[in-house]
Amino acid sequence: MSRGKLVLIAVVACVLLALGWLWHDLRLPYALKGLAGRDIEVSDVAFERVVDGRAWKARAEWVARQGASILVRSVDLSVRASSDQQLEVWAASGDYVREQDKGSLFESTGNWVRSGDVPLYWHAPRADFDGSSGRWFFPRGLVLSRDENLRIEGNVGSMDADGTLTLSEGVKAFWNE
After folding, report:
1. CA separation for the pair 95, 73 (Å, rounded)
2. Which of 89, 92, 101, 117 has the greatest number of CB atoms lying within 10 Å of its CB?
3. What is the pLDDT of residues 52-102, one digit of tens each?
4. H-run or E-run covering 54
5. What is the pTM of this model?
6. Secondary structure class of 177 (helix, strand, coil)
7. Please, is 36 exposed, middle or buried when counting C-beta atoms within 10 Å of its C-beta (0-12, 13-18, 19+)?
């Protein structure tokens, strides 16, 4: 499996995990069970956690639970997997429906950096996740780039749970030597 596929899988998994944590953090304690089920909104949500040796930092300008959906605006996520690997994701907005295990990120972009290596940048106007299949779908395209010397883009993309990445409908590769 190529490093680009692994990076994209890591990015998507990180964002879903962050949305899951936001969902968990928005669940009301039993002492407030009279409010359970009601829609809630919070501003400037931030947290830091260490999970399986990975340091997570997330911030959302606005988070709301509306019915069965979690909605977020202006999401920043940083994951340090080891001393030499850092993943960063930004999304203008997103949503997640727990009962369906489906979510979307809108205007998402990010990078993955290994110490001493050129970062891998990516951008997707929309990224949809189906938790039951583990499949990602990029219905409005996906752009991957290493630097100004390499860029690959497709008008439609998908990624299976095994990391197989497919770009279609007008795939283009640009590079400079």
Report:
1. 9
2. 89
3. 777 888 899 999 988 888 899 999 988 787 777 787 889 999 998 988 888
4. strand 54-66
5. 0.70
6. coil
7. exposed
